[in-house]
Amino acid sequence: MTTSCPKPNPERSLRHPTDSNFVLGNAQAKDRPIVYCSDGFCELTGFARAQVMSKPCACRFLWGQATEPTERQKIEDSLLAQRELQTEVVFYKKTGSQFVCLLDIVPIKNEKGDVVLFLASHKDITKQKKAPAVQGGAVPSQRPVRLQEQEQAIHSLGGGSAMPEYKVQEVKKSRCILLHYGLLKISWDWLILLFTFYIAIMVPYNAANSNGRARKAGTAAIEDAGVVIDLLVEVVFIAGKLK
Questions:
Q1: What's the pLDDT score for residue 55?
Q2: Which residues are in the PAC domain (predicted)?
């Protein structure tokens, strides 16, 4: 007695892919460069990760003679308008061999509603297109899988179990830090500059008039005040060095 193996179901294989072939593009930079690509994408296309990074996420390096101009324009328009796109397009691997790709472009938004990333998923459907079961109909949609691919892509970037939030957090300023542009720091700099001029003028003056000068009652208070100011200047400079 022999048992026959069940025939592979193309629809099931599309709805439950075993790998994720995708790239992530920065939606807020010029030409939307690729900031991450999966291992599956490198295996599918034959390009190394270093050859893919920083290139436009439209993946123009996969285009070739059989890539329809209308499909190229669809991809560019989708990225420019920041809208979803699912289409079948002929791409070329690094070796020059072509394959039919089910391209799914999904904008990823942050909590403010701004599009920050593009998820471009690539699925090789060459065998499914040639199979009789799918020749007369459209390729089943991958919409149920897309959210899972988004989470996996962002998990790969974050390197942790929690999905990173693309938001701008306010920097908490400590009261013990003197900012370079703060009023206290500016006042301190002006005080140091003023005391520097004071030392540059008073030290030569005191040295020139200290020899043989009699201490008069009228100038005693002024001289005592000068001593206090000199002491204050020294304390300020010492504090500046300790800071």
A1: 93
A2: 85-137
